Amino acid sequence: MSEILGGIFTSHVPGIGGAIAKGLQNDPYWKPFFDGFPPIHRWLARKRPDMAVVFYNDHGLNFFLDKMPTFAIGAAREYRHEDEGWGLSFQRPFAGIPELSWHIIKTVVAREFDPVMCQEMLVDHAVAVPFELLWPGTESFPVRLVPIAINTVQHPLPSPKRCLELGRAVGRALRSWQGDERIVVLGTGGLSHQLEGQRAGFINKEFDRFCLDNIGPNPEALLQYDSLDLVELAGSQGVEILNWLAARGAMAGEVVELESNYHIPISNTAAATMLLECREPVPA
Ligand code: DHB
Ligand code: FE
User: Cα dist. 282→32, 52, 169 in Å?
Assistant: First the structure.
């Protein structure tokens, strides 16, 4: 039986990839952010997940404003990173697990979600930066990937409720999968940030705290807001918290917070990292 071991949530600011490439992890600017990761590395070494379901948003690499799926699920044998202009060059490919991708697609469609199914898919910094953070320096990544892209870019965005429910449907698919994969779910992006316009540089510590306090024990608390409220409260890119909500939705049963780190700013972003562990195997 496959098992969902836990969820890892992290900002995916492209500059983090640049800092890794230059070995700046101990630089005073970066250290408070990178210091959130050694406990997560130890957890990964102990739990040894072999696959990662990643909820993230594509920033114009694979989907642009002319064609923007609300939800897209990768079902490729392999994924590659390409740079969208940040100067990032990640070489390690991401092995896929198409049989499981199709199982997830079938399960969520049966539950009335309508994802775009991608047998070819490029992944951007929102997948590659978290993988570099979690598995630095290995020859190849020790996990296979199912990428699930949520539109947080082109309005209208899916609602927080819809994203949590998508995650729940994916979680059901994972728990009904007959393989013996050891699964970690990832939610990438956030927390509050806005890159453009009059509010460029906007950060909302109080709302971030609310998200960090509730995402584990009470994710429904975030459902009092709609997606436009999230723009107002978290900034136009802070809506990436939708990815965190979906990843949280995939985790069922008792969830325990093991690690959390919050640091302002990394680039324009209130950077946050969190590790939640699933405590009980939950029946499908
Ligand atoms: C930044 C943050 C993001 O989430 C992103 O996708 C790109 C840039 C930033 O703060 O620089
Ligand atoms: Fe982003």
Answer: 35, 18, 14
Query: Within its chain, how far is the Cα of 162 from the centroid?
Result: 16
Q: What would the pLDDT profile of 74-116 be if each residue is shown by its tens digit?
A: 999 999 999 999 999 999 999 999 999 999 999 999 999 999 9
* Interatomic CA distance for residues 62 and 126, integer angstroms: 12
Q: Which residues are catalytic?
A: 125, 193
CA-based R_g, the chain, Å: 17
Pick the residue whose CA is nearest to atom 8 on ligand 1.
13
Closest of 181, 187, 180 to residue 166, by C-alpha: 187
String of DSSP letters for 152-194: -SSSSPPPHHHHHHHHHHHHHHHHT--S--EEEEEEE--SSB-
Summarised one tens digit per residue, pLDDT across range 10-56 is 999 999 999 999 999 999 999 999 999 999 999 999 999 999 999 99
Nearest CA-CA partner of 204 in 272, 144, 109: 272
Ligand 1, atom nearest to 11 Cα:
4
Contact yes or no for 35/273 (Cβ under 8 A): no
Angstrom distance (rounded) from CA 91 to CA 76: 18
What's the CA-to-centroid distance between 116 and ligand 1, angstroms? Answer: 25
- Ligand 2 centre and the CA of 11: distance in Å? 8
